[in-house]
Amino acid sequence: MKSFLVWLVAACSVMAAGASFADAPIIIKFSHVVAKDTPKGKAAEKFKELAEAATKGKVKIEIYPNSTLYKDKEELEALQLGAVQMLAPSLAKFGPLGVKEFELFDLPFIFTDKKALAKITEGPIGRELLNKLDAKGILGLAYWDNGFKMMSSNRPIHTPTDMKGLKMRIQASKVLDEQMRVLGANPQVMAFSEVYQALQTGVVDGAENPPSNLYTQKMHEVQKHLTVTNHGYIGYAVIVNKKFWDKLPADVRTQLENAMREASKYANTIAQQENDRALEAVKKAGTTTVYVPNEKEKAAWQAALLPVQKTMADRIGKDLIAAVNKATQ
Ligand code: LMR
Fold first, then answer.
1. Cα–Cα distance for residue pair 119/134, rounded to 1 Å
2. Residue whose CA is closest, atom 5 of ligand 1?
3. What pLDDT digit, counting tens, does each position of 109-157 carry?
4. Are residues 107 and 207 part of one domain?
5. 283 shares its domain with 265
6. Which of 76, 105, 171, 193 is the best mutation target for the ligand 1 pocket, counting ligand atoms within 8 Å of the beta carbon and taking the most?
7. Is the Cβ atom of 192 under 6 angstroms away from ligand 1?
8. β partners of residue 147
9. Is any ligand 1 atom within 6 A of the Cβ of residue 87?
10. What is the residue range of 34's domain?
């Protein structure tokens, strides 16, 4: 009798463990480096809301914003190792992973406006680029927009020649390195989470950011001048660990893909307005002078930076650059 009871208790606990394992939600850790109150931060929250509702609690999305879990480089390694399942790194951060074609998005003045950008991110060229990540164990799910970058510094920057000698923080992209060099500036690769302090202590003189990133990291408190150069672009690829994604139950995967489609629409709708709002907030804060180049100065920025498309053509691919220019004309 006693041994039967022991068997019964053991059997019940195995069954209970089985049941609780089956009921345990699938956890998706989504790490990113910007504040919650940015286009990417808000879109991540939107995805969480939609995904958890669609899967009725079967999936739980844990968001780790502001580099709380990993910095730029580490988060990509963590994704490949399976320590996190989802990221949305800036397109400028895929070069070190060996997919340098993404640096095409960093080419100065490659997109005249968001319509031109959408032709790539929502077209076959964008899809082909995401497919290149497969070989790295990564699946590209979507593109999320942020905005056009502006130069900031403690020195006024009106024309390209004002950039001479400035130490400028850049993301880990060879195109951005070249862009700063042709302006006579000294580029310094640095993780996003370290930029505020580097500006504050003078480790670097300036940076390039869309207004939403500048404002939400309070960089305007440590940068006296911001110039609306709109010389380059920042957007994201939402990526997942491919093995993890492929192993998901098919119905859950479809629900998550639908949630991602909706969250991406949301991301791409709010990006511009979030950046416009941030630029107004910077002006209102009063610590930074915002300068808008006149037509002659705009032409000078273009003349100085357009050659980067040629000098970086071998790295990115002449045909790819030509295809992008053709698709966006
Ligand atoms: C940067 O490092 O400047 C950006 O990539 C940060 C981000 O994710 O927008």
1. 22
2. 90
3. 999 999 999 999 999 999 999 999 999 999 999 999 999 999 999 999 9
4. no
5. no
6. 171
7. yes
8. 234
9. no
10. 2-145+235-270
